[in-house]
Design goal:
The protein has a 5-stranded parallel sheet with strand order 2-1-3-4-5, with helices on both faces. It has about 130 residues and is an alpha/beta fold. It contains 6 helices and 5 strands, in the order βαβαβαββααα. Helix 2 packs across helix 3. Helix content is about 35%, strand content about 20%.
Length: about 130
């Protein structure tokens, strides 16, 4: 199986880098192939990478929408927003973008703790 993971640096969309590395290690150990896309890649390269994969893992946004549009199975990492289908952070402040007006521009805890609650094992469990 081929899995593409979006590692974003954007505020409230950054899944911890160590989680991404752990997921890659676990995918490779079980014989899967893992690909990484980041915010600084040309969009054509992002599309090309996503198109060759069976799954896309990432937070809601442009890349997740691209994957869905291509018919690639998705695992959305939901933290700052809980709208949609995906792995939802269980902590009380999760979904802050859905609950607070005006919308916060940064995590109140300054480290996007909601996304720390969505683990690599959660992602592996969602990939069939």
């Amino acid at each position: 199986m081929k899995v593409c993971v979006h590692q974003s640096k954007k505020v409230m969309q950054a899944w911890p880098e160590e989680y991404c590395a752990e997921l890659f290690d676990k995918l490779i150990k079980r014989g899967d192939r893992a690909f990484l896309v980041t915010d600084d890649l040309e969009i054509s390269k992002v599309r090309e990478t996503i198109a060759q994969c069976d799954y896309f893992v990432g937070t809601p946004g442009e890349y997740l929408d691209i994957a869905k549009g291509m018919g690639v199975k998705t695992v959305a990492l939901l933290g700052a927003t809980l709208k949609g289908e995906g792995l939802k952070s269980p902590i009380v402040c999760a979904g802050c973008l859905d609950k607070i007006d005006p919308k916060p521009i940064d995590c109140f805890f300054q480290d996007e703790i909601c996304l720390y609650e969505v683990t690599p094992n959660d992602v592996l469990g969602a990939i069939v």
